[in-house]
Amino acid sequence: MALTIKEKRLPVFTWNRQNVNEADLILNESKESLNDFVFVIPKNLDCTANFDAFDFSKDVSDVFLSKQAKKFIDQNANVKRYIKIPKNYTASEPIKISFNPNDNLNDDILIEAEENSRAVVIIEYNSAKQIAHSGRTRIYAHKNAHIELIKSQLLNEQSNHNDTISAFADDEANVKIVLAEMGAASVFLSCSIVLNGQNSKGDLQLVYLGTDDHSIDISAKLTQRGKKTKSLICAKGILMDNAKKILRNTLDFVSGCKGSAGREEENVLMLSDKAKNISVPVLLCGEEDVEGEHAASSGKPAEAVMFYLMSRGLSESDAQKLLAKGAFSVVLKTIPDESIKNKILNFVEKAFENLQKEKN
Amino acid sequence: MEKRKTVIDDIDRKVYDISDIDDNSYKAQKGLTESVVREISKLKLEPEWMLNHRLKSLEIYNRLKLPNWGSSLHELDMDQIVTYVKPNTNMKSNWDEVPDNIKSTFERLGIPKAERDYLAGVGAQYDSEVVYHNMKQELLAQGVIYTDMETAVREYEDIVKDLFMKLVPPQDHKFVALHGAVWSGGSFVYVPAGVKVSIPIQSYFRMNAPGSGQFEHTLIVVEKGASLHFIEGCSAPKYNVLNLHAGCVELYVKEGATLRYSTIENWSKNMLNLNTKRALVEKGGTIEWVSGTFGSHITMLYPSSILKGEGAKSEFTGISFASKGQYLDTGTKVVHAAKNTFSSIKSRSISKDGGASVYRSSVNILPAAVKSKSSVICESLMIGDNCRSDTIPVMKIENDEADIGHEAKIGRISDFAVFYLMTRGLSEEEAKAMIVRGFVEPITKELPLEYAVEMNRLINLELEGTIG
Questions:
Q1: Which range (A214-223, A238-247, B232-241) has the least confidence?
Q2: For every residue of A41-65, which 3-state class applies, written as one string?
């Protein structure tokens, strides 16, 4: 059974005719509890904890999730994990969760990085079959903790995928989130990072690929509350065929966050005259002593660049593919797991092969 | 040493806040009813189609809801607003015939002098009616029409009826519908093909009656290959009750024509300014918006351009200055509907001492708009505590052969930039003044010299502080 909820997608609304303020979130029930997934943790690290012991006062997922949606996810999660990185611990290897379900997946993951800890958590979503995925990942980074969350979504091209990621950072904490949205027919992604503590940092890196009739709806918000916080949102996208994408990035400088700085940038490579690209880069500022900036660009590969590459012997498709991979590399180079990087790049390869077949 | 803050004076409003006695020959009853609408139409001796339009607009107004975005308009109580105030005079074409109190108001505002020194025509509206209208003879000889809107409805019905509120229909939003029901005053300008009006024409709108509304309608048609610079100014004295401005501007820029539409808005801080402006640009035509927003309590203003013909262009240059008690929500919209169209948006805003400025925009590139380009640059300067500056742009691109670039910045006056200038021999005050003037310069340079001087005068600077 599916539940459709109209969710608020922008922190401040704009003209209703633009159809960017709200969007439908479709949540699907899952069957019984799922245990068939791979969970790899470094040796000698006991990082699992009692799910209900998490400090839910640090849960900031309500930026994009209504009460109704939260309740549904609470009641329908078929995977629940609480990963707790102990104080002063530095994980030598990433913690890795790999999903490859045959049926609907609703995962609810809590990640807590205690004071001075360092860890990388990688979560992969793969599926050969069509499934519906609803995920929620909540992060709490204590003082001076550095936590990096990498999510790779390579679901079957008919699948329905929605995911809500949120993070709360204390003083000196550093939260980095890398998201690769490559598969699924429908992507509904929300990411909220709250830099509550002084000198905390938030970094969101996003790559996405839209093909066929796929729909991509992404909302991200970085809220800077503490003094001298730093934020960065960097999004690189490729749109082909009849894909539709909307990306709303918000930087919010709350009154009191003196000395803070933030930047958001988005570049979209349009490779189809039928694709639709909507960007809403929002800057909200209630504090004088900050520096905020955003930049967005969209278009097909520059003619001069294409000419240069093709004059070196590449076909048009190969030249476009090279540029696409180059655009993604800015984000992908930060992923420490080579197998995941390769899977993402292979996905891009396959998309260009399909594109070439259609042209022929 | 404690860092002292940069201080920028509020706008100097002495001239604008002098009010006249509320001496009118007719004042509608408060509120918005069918009888008020019928009475306005009757007083204006309008054709039936215009009365029907007003009544239809009233019906739409009553049906539509207030917007669920932007500033709250809860302070607005239409039952307390007088929608029509007729001043105690008819329209004149000689300043000496205008009643002394009204004439002296416009003299204080510099309008007659501006007309003598550097304008090709002037229209002056006082409350709900145009009290003065004149144009240089040589323009008349070229076939240029510049008259008040009521005269245009009667005497140029063949042009006006087909265009009036077609570009901005009453269904657009609640305050356009309100305008459609109770509009009064405003200007009609028609420039024949090939005629280049080299000297600007200005309309000035002055509201005097407290608790009233002004709903002027401006309709401009610039025919093929013609050009015009139209300047719009507005002000009102400050009262303790709310005033409302819901004007409407419709601009038709035909093939190869150029229209520059400049506005310096300096409403008082009891004013709700909910204006709607839109231009339709044909093949090879150009619309240039120059917009300075300094006054009002709440402004929601987004001059829009529809680039309908191949090669059409839109340039928007705007500045807003929000001080305490002000919420200035401004920006622009552009629709690229044909190939090789071009749009450029440059917006600057200053917010100080609790003021809030919002930059809101939309750029739509439709599938047919191949090889189109759009560039958006938006910068905001914040001075002082408790102010806000928000940027909410939307870009929709529906073809792969369009190039879009957008950038925005928010911040304060850079200490490094001040230090650099001081090392070159400037005092701190001179350095900061130079930086702020440089910040507004892209807008002032688009205006005729006299208006640039006026705009700089509006932004009086008194700067102090240290960087140590």
A1: B232-241
A2: CCCCCCCECCHHHCCHHHCCHHHCC
Please give the structure tokens belonging to residue A235: 């999004």
Q: Which candidate from B360, B367, B403 shows the least CB-CB separation from A299? A: B403
In A90-142, at which residue ranges do the beta strands (DSSP E only) sit? 95-99, 105-113, 118-126, 132-141
DSSP letters for A260-280: EEEEEEEEEEE--TT-EEEEE
pLDDT for the residue numbered B463: 34
Question: Residue B76 burial (CB < 10 Å; 0-12/13-18/19+)?
Answer: middle
Closest to B391 (Cα-Cα) out of B329, B316, B315: B329
The answer for residues whose C-beta is within 8 angstroms of residue B445's C-beta and 6 or more apart is B452
Element (H, E) at A324: helix A316-332
Measured distance between the N- and C-terminal CA atoms of chain A, rounded to whole angstroms: 41
φ, ψ of residue A175 in degrees (nearest 5): -115, 125
Indicate the pairing of strand B373-383 with strand B342-352: parallel
- Residue of chain B nearest A286, judged by CA positions: B388
B394 touches chain A (CB under 8 A): yes
Compute the average pLDDT of residues B241-259: 95
Listed as own residue / partner, the contacts of A16-21 with beta carbons closer than 8 Å and 24 or more positions apart are A16/B67, A16/B68, A16/B69, A18/B362, A18/B394, A18/B396, A20/A246, A20/A248, A20/A278, A20/A280, A20/B394, A21/B69
Separation of alpha carbons A282 and A265, rounded Å? 11
Contact (Cβ atoms closer than 8 angstroms) between residue B298 and residue B270: no
CA–CA min distance A217, chain B (Å): 14
Q: What is the pLDDT of residues A262-310, one digit of tens each?
A: 999 999 999 998 999 999 999 999 999 999 999 988 888 888 898 999 9
User: What residue of B is the nearest CA neighbor of A284?
Assistant: B390
Q: Most B CBs within 10 Å: which of A264, A298, A300, as the mutation test of the B interface?
A: A298
Q: B415 and chain A: CB distance < 8 Å anywhere?
A: no
Distance of CA B142 to the CA centre of its chain: 28
Judge: B406–A272 Cβ closer than 8 Å, yes or no. no
Strand, helix or coil at B101? helix
Q: Which of A93, A279, A285 is nearest to B412 (CA)?
A: A285
Report the DSSP beta bridge partners of residue A248: A219, A280
